[in-house]
Write a structure and sequence with these properties.
The structure holds 2 protein chains of 2 kinds.
Chain A: H1 2-33, H2 40-57, H3 62-85, H4 93-115, E1 120-121, E2 131-133, E3 136-138, H5 140-162, H6 164-174, H7 176-181, H8 186-208, E4 213-214, H9 219-233, H10 238-259, H11 264-278
Antiparallel strand pairs in A: 1-4, 2-3
Helix pairs in contact in A: 1-5, 1-6, 1-8, 1-9, 1-10, 2-3, 2-4, 2-8, 2-9, 3-8, 5-6, 6-8, 9-10, 10-11
Chain B: H1 2-22, E1 33-39, H2 46-65, E2 74-80, H3 85-97, E3 103-105, H4 110-123, E4 127-129, E5 144-146, H5 151-164, E6 169-175, H6 178-191, E7 197-204, H7 212-220, E8 225-229, H8 234-244, E9 250-253, H9 260-266, E10 274-277, H10 293-307, H11 316-328, H12 336-344, E11 349-350, E12 355-356, E13 372-377, E14 380-383
Parallel strand pairs in B: 1-2, 1-3, 3-4, 4-5, 6-7, 6-8, 8-9
Antiparallel strand pairs in B: 10-13, 11-12, 13-14
Helix pairs in contact in B: 2-11, 3-4, 5-6, 8-9, 11-12
Classes of the chains: A mainly alpha, B alpha/beta.
C-alpha cells in the first residue's frame, strides 16, 4: 500500500507542478492588472506546440528551443495586450475577460490551421531510465519539471523583491493610481505583466509536452485546472499558486487511487468548492477577492 | 400594366419551351439515382469523414464508369455534419425532402447515426451507416444497416488472442466517452465466455495528461494483460506510462488506434502492443488465399492514385456501403421498400471491411473474419497467425 501511495504522490506532483506553472501565469497577471486571462490555457498549448516544432521539427538544441518557445509565447501575450486589451475604450473588467475568451478561441483556431487536428508528441528532456524509489517509479521528466518550476518561482520572487521594475509592478498591483502619480508607467507594467504571464504559460507548455500528447485543443482543460489551482492557493500569491497546483495534482491522483478514476475530477473540484467556501480568498490569499 | 402582362406571357412561353424542349432529352438517359451522404468531413472526426466522402465518390465513379445501374447513373449528394448530431439531422432532412435521395450513406459516428435513425425509419429511407456502435443495428431496425465492424467483434478478436496466451486475469482501462463505454460494456459482457477475470477496471478522461495513477491501481491487482479502449491521444499516453512504469504485461489496444498516428505518438512505447484491426492496414501481408486481398489491393491502389494521399483504415466503410447498395439496387427502379428488401438479401459480398452476409436479423452482416490481430513490431504492423 505504501508503494502505491508513493506512486500516486509522484504522479500527482508531476501533474501538480504543471498546474502550478499555469496558475503562476494567472496569479501574476491578476496581481498587476486584476484581470483573469482565459487565454492562459492557449499559451500553454502554444508553448507545447512551439517546443515540438522547434525541437523535434527543426532539430534545434533543447535549451534554444525552450527559450525560443517561451519568448515566442511571451510575444503573443504582448501582441494580445497591444491589439486586444489596450484598444478597449471602456476597460470594464467583464469586457476584458470576455475579450480574453475571444482571444483563446482565435488562438485555438490559428493553432488548428497551423498544426492540424492531430496530436503530437515530444520525447523526454533527457534519456534516463525512470528512478525506482521504494518500489514506485519516478520519471526523470518529473524531476526536471519540479526543478524548473522551483527555479521559476525563485526567479520571480527575486524579480519582485530585488529589481526596481519588479517593485514598480508590485506598486501597480497595490494601488495603480498612486503608482502612476509617483511616476511609474503603469501601462508599461501592464504590458510587461502580460508578456511575463504568457511566457509562464509557455513554460508550462514546454514542460507538459514530453509527458503527454499535445494538440490544438489541449489548452482549455489545462487552463481550467490552472485557474482552479490559482483560486485554491489564493489569486495574487506566487507560493499560493504553487501550493494550489500541487494540492490539485495530488488530490486528483489520490482520488483515482483511493476512490475511483471516474470520480477523479469530481473529487478535486468538490474540494476546491469546500476550500473556497471556508476561505473565499484561497489558502494563502490575503485580501478578499472582489466579485465583478 | 399592359407591359407586365406581356412579361408574364413571354415568361410562360419560355417556360413551356424549356419544359417541352427538355422532355425529349430525358428519353435517352434515365434519370440518375440520387444517393445521399452525411459524413463528419470537418471537425474533430474529420479523420473518419474525409476519407469516407472520398471513398463514396470513388465508388460511385467506378459504378458509373461501368454504365450505372439498370441504365441509371448514380449521383452523390454529400453534406458535412461536423460531427454534430443536430447538423446530421438537418442534413438528413435536407437529403430526404429537398434532394429526394433513394438511400443515405453515413453518418460517420455512432451519436450522429443514432440521431437520424428515427427520421429515416419514419420516412422509410434505407440508411447504411459507417459508424461502429452496436446500438445502431441491435435491435434490428427495418431501414438501418451498417458496414463498420461492431465493438463485439473487436472484443471477440482480442479475447480469442488473450485466451490463446493462456491468460486468465486481465485489467481494463477505458476512455470516458461513448466509444469507451461501449467497449467497457462488451469487455465485461464477453469476459466470462473466454474464462477471463477482470481484476481491475479503470477509466480515463479523453484529454488527461497522465494515467500513472490508474495504471498503478491496475498493477497492484497483478493482471497478466491490460486492455486499453480509446482513441488517440489517450491510449498513446497509456502506452508511454506503461513503459515508464516498467510494467511487464501484455498490452492490448482497441481498433480505435489502428492508424500510423498511434505508432508516431507512442514511439518505441508502442512496440509489442497487440490490437485488432480491419485487414486494410496489412493488405500486403495478407496471404494470397484471403478472399478480401484482391478487393483491398484494388481499393488501396485506386484511392492513392486518385487522391494522392495514403489510404486510411476508415474510408472503406463508405466504399462498402456504396457497393452493397449497388448490389441491392438493380430491378428496384428506385423504390425504397424494394431497396430495403434487396439490402437484406445481399450475401457473400466481399468488401474492404469484410465479407457481408445480410439477413432480416443481421443488418451488419460481418463475421469474425472482419478483424485480424496485429502486433506492432519495429514501428510497423505485423499480421499475426490466426
Amino acid at each position: 500500500m505504501v508503494q502505491e501511495i508513493l506512486q500516486y504522490l509522484f504522479s500527482g506532483v508531476t501533474n501538480g507542478a504543471i498546474y502550478a506553472v499555469i496558475a503562476l501565469g494567472f496569479t501574476m497577471l491578476f496581481s498587476t492588472t486584476s484581470l483573469i486571462n482565459f487565454a492562459q490555457g492557449e499559451f500553454v498549448m502554444l508553448g507545447a506546440m512551439g517546443l515540438i516544432t522547434l525541437w523535434k521539427g527543426f532539430q534545434l538544441p533543447l535549451g534554444v528551443a525552450f527559450l525560443l518557445s517561451t519568448l515566442g509565447v511571451a510575444g503573443v501575450g504582448l501582441l494580445m495586450e497591444r491589439l486586444a486589451i489596450r484598444t478597449v475604450r471602456k476597460p470594464h473588467p467583464i469586457v476584458l475577460v470576455i475579450i480574453t475568451i475571444g482571444a483563446s478561441i482565435l488562438l485555438k483556431g490559428i493553432a488548428m490551421i497551423a498544426w492540424g487536428k492531430d496530436a503530437h508528441s515530444a520525447p523526454a528532456f533527457s534519456r534516463h531510465p525512470p528512478l525506482e524509489v521504494a518500489g514506485a517509479t519516478l520519471l526523470f521528466q518529473s524531476l526536471w519539471i519540479i526543478l524548473i518550476v522551483v527555479a521559476v518561482v525563485l526567479a520571480l520572487q527575486a524579480f519582485y523583491r530585488k529589481s526596481l521594475t519588479g517593485k514598480a509592478m508590485q506598486a501597480c498591483a497595490i494601488n495603480r493610481k498612486a503608482a502612476s502619480l509617483i511616476g511609474i508607467p503603469s501601462e508599461k507594467m501592464t504590458l510587461l505583466a502580460f508578456a511575463l504571464s504568457a511566457g509562464m504559460g509557455g513554460i508550462g507548455g514546454v514542460l507538459v509536452a514530453p509527458i503527454t500528447m499535445s494538440s490544438y485543443d489541449m489548452g482549455m482543460l489545462l487552463g481550467l485546472k490552472g485557474f482552479c489551482a490559482a483560486m485554491l492557493g489564493g489569486l495574487g500569491n506566487s507560493w499560493g499558486a504553487v501550493l494550489g497546483g500541487m494540492l490539485l495534482g495530488i488530490l486528483e491522483a489520490m482520488g483515482v487511487g483511493l476512490f475511483s478514476s471516474s470520480l477523479k475530477d469530481a473529487i478535486a473540484f468538490l474540494l476546491l468548492l469546500g476550500i473556497l467556501y471556508v476561505r473565499p480568498s484561497g489558502i494563502l490569499g490575503e485580501k478578499a477577492i472582489h466579485r465583478f | 400594366m399592359r407591359q407586365r402582362g406581356t412579361c408574364w406571357i413571354v415568361s410562360l412561353a419560355i417556360c413551356a419551351a424549356v419544359v417541352l424542349g427538355l422532355a425529349p432529352c430525358n428519353g435517352w438517359a434515365k434519370e440518375p439515382y440520387k444517393i445521399g451522404g452525411v459524413f463528419s468531413i470537418t471537425g474533430a472526426s474529420s479523420f473518419l469523414g474525409d476519407p469516407e466522402k472520398k471513398s463514396m465518390e470513388m465508388a460511385i465513379e467506378e459504378i458509373n464508369g461501368r454504365g450505372g445501374i439498370d441504365g441509371h447513373m448514380l449521383e452523390a449528394v454529400i453534406y458535412d455534419d461536423e460531427g454534430d448530431p443536430t447538423k446530421a439531422v438537418l442534413n438528413a432532412t435536407k437529403l430526404i425532402s429537398k434532394d429526394d435521395v433513394i438511400a443515405i450513406v453515413g453518418p460517420s459516428l455512432t451519436p450522429t447515426t443514432l440521431a437520424i435513425v428515427p427520421l429515416v425509419e419514419k420516412e422509410k429511407i434505407p440508411l447504411i451507416s459507417c459508424a461502429a456502435g452496436i446500438k445502431i443495428t441491435e435491435p434490428v431496425k427495418p431501414f438501418v444497416f451498417k458496414t463498420a465492424q461492431s465493438d463485439v467483434l473487436a472484443v471477440n478478436a482480442i479475447y480469442r488472442h488473450v485466451q490463446k496466451q493462456n491468460i486468465k486475469k486481465i485489467g481494463i482501462i477505458t476512455v470516458e466517452n461513448a466509444f469507451g463505454e461501449s467497449g467497457k460494456e462488451q469487455l465485461t459482457a464477453q469476459a466470462g465466455k473466454f474464462g477471463l477475470n477482470i481484476a481491475q477496471a479503470e477509466t480515463f478522461g479523453a484529454k488527461d495528461t497522465d494515467m500513472t495513477a490508474q495504471l498503478t491501481k491496475i498493477r497492484s491487482a497483478e493482471p497478466e494483460a491490460v486492455v486499453c479502449w480509446g482513441t488517440n491521444p489517450g491510449p498513446a499516453v497509456i502506452s508511454k506510462n506503461i513503459q515508464q512504469m516498467n510494467m511487464k504485461m501484455h498490452l492490448y489496444q482497441s481498433h480505435g488506434v489502428a492508424s500510423p498516428k498511434f505508432i508516431e505518438l507512442a514511439g518505441d512505447a508502442a512496440e509489442g502492443t497487440y490490437l485488432p484491426t480491419g485487414k486494410i492496414l496489412v493488405t500486403r501481408q495478407l496471404p494470397e488465399s484471403d478472399p478480401q486481398k484482391a478487393v483491398l489491393q484494388h481499393y488501396v491502389q485506386e484511392f492513392e492514385k486518385i487522391y494522392k494521399v495514403p489510404v486510411s483504415g476508415f474510408g472503406g466503410y463508405a466504399y462498402d456501403a456504396v457497393q452493397i447498395l449497388a448490389r441491392a439496387l438493380p430491378g428496384t427502379e428506385g423504390n425504397r421498400d424494394k431497396i430495403r428488401d434487396g439490402l437484406e438479401k445481399v450475401k457473400g459480398l466481399v468488401g474492404v471491411t469484410g465479407t457481408f452476409n445480410f439477413s432480416p436479423t443481421d443488418h451488419n452482416g460481418l463475421g469474425e473474419d472482419a478483424f485480424v490481430m496485429v502486433q506492432i513490431r519495429s514501428g510497423d504492423w505485423k499480421l499475426l497467425e490466426k
